Hints:
There is one protein chain. By secondary structure, the protein is α+β, with helices and mostly antiparallel strands. Helix content is about 25%, strand content about 25%. Strands 1-2-4-5-6-7-3 form a seven-stranded mixed sheet, with helices on both faces. The longest helix has 19 residues, at about 15-35. The chain starts with 10 loop residues before the first helix and ends with a helix. The model has no long low-confidence stretch (mean pLDDT about 85).
Amino acid sequence: xxxxxxxxxxxxxxxSWESFHSGWANEIMRQLxxxxxxxxxxRPNVKLGVDVExxxxxxxxxxxxxxEGGGLAVAVWAPPEPTLTTAVDxxxxxxxxxxxxxxxxxxxxxxxxxxxxxxxxxxxxxRHFASKCAAYLQAGVSVILVxxxxxxxxNLYAALLDQLSLAPDDADEGPLYAVACRSTPPDEASRLExxxxxxxxxxxxxxxxxxxxxxxxxxxxxxxxxxxxFVELRVAI
Length: 237
């Protein structure tokens, strides 16, 4: 089924973007929890307002089993080669924060971001969003960005590359896109790898690699979760 325009009639009159955004994040969470290996769990985190939060976080549970135990068995998936591989210097980034963790709590390993118009409408919002994604990558958390916003042309993937002092590829600066990004482990030379897919209205959404570890990824089927959200919300278009 094709990607629709959520920001113009007729779909805008049938279902608000906020409703679909929330429903899609929850559907991604449900489908991920059917495919994630033992020791990992996906949690939705939808927050409307100025603050930027990951829409879906994939967490590693402490004391997770290796190949044995009662967890869900998942076949090894080999993602395609990245469309961008480049050296990156994370150490020039400013990061000021205080974190409080519960002992034995969950550690975030991946995040899925469904871009909203508010993320793109002001330079400060775009910098905030890009800085947060860069901080995730600096910490070894893989990030998937999905932008289907048709009312704003600003490209947050390009903003993320700029935040990392990398020149964006002009071919990857279309207004609609989905991209998976990951950084190499801390004990290796810093490198950024990205899997970029251009999106088109009327075309299907792609499958992207969601990286849990340096040698472990699961497929994130955006098309499957997207269509399931229409069914759950009873939007017929």
